[in-house]
Each structure stands twice: as C-alpha cells, then as structure tokens.
Amino acid sequence: MLRKHFAAEGVSTKEYLPYRPEGLPAKVVAVANFKGGVGKTSTAAHLAMSAALDGYRVLVIDLDSQGSMTSILGGNVADEWQTVFPLIAKDYAQAVQQENRVRNAAGQSEIPLDETLNEALKTGPGDVIQKTHWPNIDLIGAQLNLYWAEFQIPVWRMGLRSWPLWDGLTNFLHQDGVLDDYDIVFLDTPPALGYLTINALAAADILLVPLGASFLEFDSTGRFFDMLYTTFASIEDGENAAQRAAGLPELKFEWDVVRAIITRFDASQQTDMANVIQAYFGDFMNAYRQDYTALVGQAGEQVNGIYEADYRDFNRDTYVRGRETFDRTYAEFKEVLIGCWWRDTHMGDKADG
After folding, report:
1. How far apart, in whole angstroms, are the C-alpha atoms of residue 307 and residue 323?
2. pLDDT tens sequence across 178-226
3. Which of 121, 120, 100, 95 has the alpha carbon at shortest distance from 112?
4. CB-based burial of residue 192 (10 Å sphere; 0-12 exposed, 13-18 middle, 19+ buried)?
5. First to last CA, the chain
6. Region class of 177: left (phi > 0), else alpha (psi between -120 and 50), else beta
7. pLDDT, tens digit, for every residue of 132-181?
8. pTM for this structure?
C-alpha cells in the first residue's frame, strides 16, 4: 500500500514499484526437479518472499502433497478441496460438458458427471486461494490428500481421451483472471515427473531447476531434463496428428527461460564439481551458486524463511551471508523476469507495427 501511495504521490524521479509492464499477464515460474532434497521448496519460498519484499504481488501454488511450502507460509489446508485438486477436476468436468453437448447433438449418450465433478464445477479462485502472513503473498496450499490427483487424473483421461490433462492448471490461471491479479506465480512441484508436475511445467513461463553440486544430483538432473524432453515430445506427437487432421494449430510446449541453480553449495568441497556442472549446462546455468550457511540451515529447522529469521540469533557475518545467499539468487532471477517481460513488450510492439 505504501509503495502504491508513493508511486502516485511521491517524487517523480524515484521508482517506488518494481518493473511490471501494463497489459501483460503475470509470469508463471515452476521450480522443479524429480530428485528430492535439492532445495526446490526453499528456493521457491525465498524467491517468493524476495519478490514480495520487492513489491510484487505473488501467488504461490503448492503442488507437493508433503505440504512443506504450505507449512513455511503458515497455510491451513483442511482437505484436498482447498488444493489444486478441484481446479483440475473442474477443468475435466468442463471438458465433459463440452463433449456432452456434441453427443447430444449427435443423439449419443452422455458421459455422466459424478458428485465430485459437479462439486468441482462450483469451485472458483476464492475457494482455494488464501492469504498468508506475508501481505504480498497468497497461497494455494497442499496436504496429503492432494496425492489422490495422481491416480484420478489418468482415470479421467481414460473417460475422455480428448481431455488435455496437462492444461488444467493453465486454464485455471488464464480463465479465472488469476494472472491479472498477481505479478508472479510460483509453482512448487513434487519430486516426481507426475501429472501435477506436468501441469505445472505446461503452465510455466520460466523453469527453474535446483540441484546440489554432487555427482548424484548432477546425474539425476540430467535424467530429469531427458525425461522432460521425452515426455513433452511424446505429448506433442500424440496430439499434433489429430490437430493437423482437424486443421488446427499444432501443440508446442515452450518456456521463456530455463535455468539450473546450484543450491546448498560448499565452496571448500564442491567447487570442482560445480565447475563441471557449470560447463555442462552452460547458458542454462545461473551464475550465482547458493551457499549453504548456518542461517539457511536454522531457518529450515524452524520451518520459516531466512527473511523471517531474527538477526539477534546470529552473529553479524552469519546473518549477512545468509541473507546475501538468497538476495543474489533473487537478483539474478529478477534479471530473467524483467528480460522476459521486456521481450514480450517489444514483441507486442513489433506485432502492432
């Protein structure tokens, strides 16, 4: 509120609000890797906090049924109906309704909608988005029952083969005006390339892949990228034959930017391995490596973020190093974010011209 007030009433030569082009939707950022313990949730949480402190309006969507992000942000999720589950169920139910209209016109029997799907049709953003103790961060939380979606989504797909199961989250963000209400949407994914992760990756503009500077994590991340390419190439191949036959545009999954980020870095022991990883990933690699410090470790033990840590609990050097770790990660992320918006703006200008 203060930033908006000063932007309207303050000194005209000063910038009180962060860069955000008008008329463009929020950027969606997926933080993903199918190896656990690489710092996905920590990275997503601290980027969200940094962006909120910078003045951006942030929505965090927790897609991991372990609910660690939800705990960090103090979310209260009673059951799966306060997660993304009803949003994806709603997308399927709407696809069934559309299919039933076609069947009715052809005199064919309808696909029935059960109680779950009828209830999902009533779900809107206000039913799942909750405020957090961070004024600029809202949350769609997760809890254990969310894992049910991994079993239910393929069952729905079998019931209606034409339903694009990867678009449920994308359609929610676009159709319900969510991308107009926020500046950045962070998606915290589970450590698996399942249906929820596929939804997150399909919705994302920016893909961030955290990994530690160890051989096992490097090897696992390489396999993650291989599987990512294979999975989405398979979806494209399967769908585009039908798209071409119907004279429709072909499906193509793209991201504005993909970045790998080294996390929990110990320069005294991991520099050589980190250099190998940097050389292998090249331009896909963040320049800054997130140091592991006492501040980062204790924040994780207390289920909060370093931006909520009390500086009086640490000596000055430890506190400064801990803050700097994520300040520098955010600074590099913000360059990527602004670059994406700048490109979108200028592509729009060229199209208008």
Report:
1. 7
2. 999 999 999 999 998 899 999 999 999 999 999 999 999 999 999 999 9
3. 100
4. middle
5. 36
6. left
7. 999 999 999 999 999 999 999 999 999 999 999 999 999 999 987 899 99
8. 0.91
